[in-house]
């Protein structure tokens, strides 16, 4: 049994959607290189994944979603990541953003989910734009980069300042200008272009303070029966760690398959070389350990959330350290595997090369990346030094 085979076992809650994710893996892997070149996901693939419920894993059953929780979302993202990290990234984000939309007032949810079980929605976490009140509406202006998922989306959530508080406002995509500036060497297929709003008018109910988005219960979605609607965002973020875990699983299997090949003139097959075997088994064991770390992270986060009180700074730091550590460990393990696969590991169509570059880019992301910033923050919180300038204004609790 391989590491990938152990991602999920049949018979548990959410088996159908996990099985659906598994069935997409070969197709996504076949499309991955072309999507990288196109700098966007294949549109028919996105349509089919949505129809299979892969973007509505945590959408409440009231709106036609799967009504599941973080464990099932972890499995879905992990499996998709074995095929392509950009696709897994967008999949995770569409699920997160559906979860966020289910925190808005009920009448907003009813409108958004009236004829669909998921809303393909981008969301941006960056410097806020502006929103001016007028007759129960908001006039929104701003420019935001990194709009992951917008190329296939119907809406976007963008940060603005409303009444001196940072909020996310929902803006229909057809009222946004898209700037084709996603020219990157990694994570290219996410299509995370810049978006611009110019005097876009929306109902003021389409704004929700950022703190309510992150909170377990201080929002408008607690009428839903599912536990996921009463969890803080810190629990949901373990799906991002699942992406890293899935990527390393796939890399281990790719490298296993190459063990019988040679690299270089007069070189013995890798499987006959002690150092090549050691390099591979180290990655194999690292993958196993990352599964354990991810599982411990979700178990700890759920245990804290089920107490019914917000995380302390120390608990939030320990949760964050799981994500930072898993990401950095997977990044380094992937680099080692690429180095052990010879010059072919740097071909444009090489799946291992693409995964290594993608994870390296994610390691600069605001959630688990920016290693120096994140580690210093977690150290201060664990040492009882409290919040400092530059720390998040609204925590993920």
UniProtKB/TrEMBL annotation:
Oxidoreductase recorded as keyword: yes
Domain Acyl-CoA dehydrogenase C-terminal stretches: 246-368
This protein's record includes keyword Isomerase: no
Keyword list, A-Z: Oxidoreductase
UniProt xrefs under InterPro entries: Acyl-CoA_DH_C, Acyl-CoA_Oxase/DH_mid-dom_sf, AcylCoA_DH/ox_N, AcylCoA_DH/ox_N_sf, AcylCoA_DH/oxidase_NM_dom_sf
Molecular function terms, GO-annotated: flavin adenine dinucleotide binding; oxidoreductase activity, acting on the CH-CH group of donors
Start and end residues of each Acyl-CoA dehydrogenase/oxidase N-terminal domain: 16-104
Origin superkingdom: Bacteria
Protein name: Acyl-CoA dehydrogenase C-terminal domain-containing protein
Lineage: Bacteria, Bacillati, Actinomycetota, Actinomycetes, Mycobacteriales
């Amino acid at each position: 049994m391989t590491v990938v085979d152990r991602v999920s076992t049949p018979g548990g809650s959410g088996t159908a959607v996990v099985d659906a994710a598994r069935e997409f893996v070969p197709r996504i892997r076949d499309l991955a290189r072309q999507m990288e070149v196109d700098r966007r996901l294949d549109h028919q693939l996105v349509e089919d994944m949505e129809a299979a419920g892969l973007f509505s894993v945590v959408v409440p059953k009231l709106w036609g979603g799967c009504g599941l929780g973080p464990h099932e979302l972890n499995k879905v993202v992990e499996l998709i990541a074995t095929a392509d990290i950009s696709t897994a990234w967008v999949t995770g984000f569409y699920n997160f953003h559906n979860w966020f939309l289910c925190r808005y007032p009920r009448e907003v949810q009813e409108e958004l989910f009236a004829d669909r079980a998921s809303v393909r929605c981008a969301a941006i976490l960056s410097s806020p734009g502006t929103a001016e009140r007028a007759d129960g509406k908001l006039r929104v202006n701003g420019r935001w980069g990194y709009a992951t998922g917008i190329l296939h989306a119907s809406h976007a959530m963008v940060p603005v300042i409303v009444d001196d508080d940072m909020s996310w406002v929902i803006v229909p995509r057809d009222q946004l200008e898209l700037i084709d500036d996603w020219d990157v060497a990694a994570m290219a297929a996410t299509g995370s272009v810049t978006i611009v709003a110019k005097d876009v008018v929306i109902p003021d109910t389409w704004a929700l303070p950022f703190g309510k988005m992150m909170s377990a219960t201080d929002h408008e979605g607690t009428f839903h029966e599912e536990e996921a609607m009463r969890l803080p965002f810190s629990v949901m973020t373990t799906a991002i760690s699942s992406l890293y875990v899935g990527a390393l699983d796939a890399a281990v299997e790719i490298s296993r398959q190459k063990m019988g090949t040679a690299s270089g003139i007069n070189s013995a097959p890798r499987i006959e070389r002690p150092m090549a075997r050691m390099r591979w088994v180290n990655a194999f064991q690292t993958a196993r350990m990352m599964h354990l770390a991810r599982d411990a992270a979700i178990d700890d986060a759920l245990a804290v959330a089920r107490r019914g009180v917000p995380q302390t700074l120390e608990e939030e730091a320990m949760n964050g350290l799981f994500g930072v550590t898993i990401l950095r460990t997977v990044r380094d393990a992937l680099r080692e595997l690429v180095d052990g696969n010879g010059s072919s590991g740097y071909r444009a169509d090489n799946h291992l090369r693409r995964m290594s570059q993608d994870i390296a880019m994610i390691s600069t992301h605001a959630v688990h990346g920016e290693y120096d910033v994140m580690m210093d923050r977690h150290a201060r919180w664990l040492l009882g030094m409290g919040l400092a300038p530059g720390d998040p204004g609204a925590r993920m609790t």
